[in-house]
Hints:
By secondary structure, the chain is an alpha+beta fold. It has helices at residues 21-24, 29-73, 76-79, 84-95, 141-144, and strands at residues 3-5, 15-17, 104-111, 150-159, 180-189. The strands form two sheets. It has a three-stranded antiparallel β-sheet with strand order 3-4-5, covered by helices on one side. The protein has a two-stranded antiparallel sheet with strand order 1-2. α2 runs antiparallel to α4. The protein is elongated, with a radius of gyration of 29 Å. The N and C termini lie far apart (101 Å).
Amino acid sequence: MRMRPTKRRGFFLRPRLLRPGWLRNEDGFAGVDFALVALPFLLFVLGIVGIGLYFLASTSLENSVESAARKIRTGEADKGDLTVGAFKDLVCDAAGSYINCGKVAVIVQHAATWSGISPQKCTDANGNMVSSTGSSDELVSKYAGAASEVVLVTLCYKWDLAKNFEFLQLGTGSNGSGPAMIQASTAFKSEPFE
C-alpha cells in the first residue's frame, strides 16, 4: 500500500491511505451531524416548554379557583354581597398576570346533597366555550346557595398558546389543533356560616 503524509498537526505526521477524493474530503461532516440532530432536539425542547407552560397555566388556575372559592365556603361572599363579576376578578387576580381574564368563564352550582351536583363541560355541543354563570352584576350567593350546601365551582380557560404548539395536539379541534380548554374545579360543602 502506498501511503503519503498529510498536513502537519502538532509535532507528528499522520500517514493516510490514498483514497479517492470524495472519501478523503471530510468537510461538512459537522454540519450534516448537526442537521440530523438539530430538528429532533428543537422539537424536544419546544415540547418541554409547551407542556411546562400548559402545566403552569393549569396549576395557576387550580390554585386560583381554590382560593377564590374560599369566599363562598366561609360565607364571605354571601355576607359581603360579592357579585359574579367581582368573584371572576378574584379568580383572575389569584391566577396571575399571564392568564387572560377575558377568556375565563366561572360556573358556580349548588345543591342540597353531593348527588345533586352535575359537573358541566367547558364547551357546548358545537365546541364553543360556555359563558360564566349569570351576569356580572348578579350576586354570586344566588348561584352558591345557602350555608351547609354542596357547591361546585368550575373554571374554564381558553388557552390560545396551544395554537403555537400544535405538534403537541393539546387543542380542542378534532385533530388537536387550535386553542386548548383548561378546566379547574373545586367542590365543597359550605360552612354553617348563618
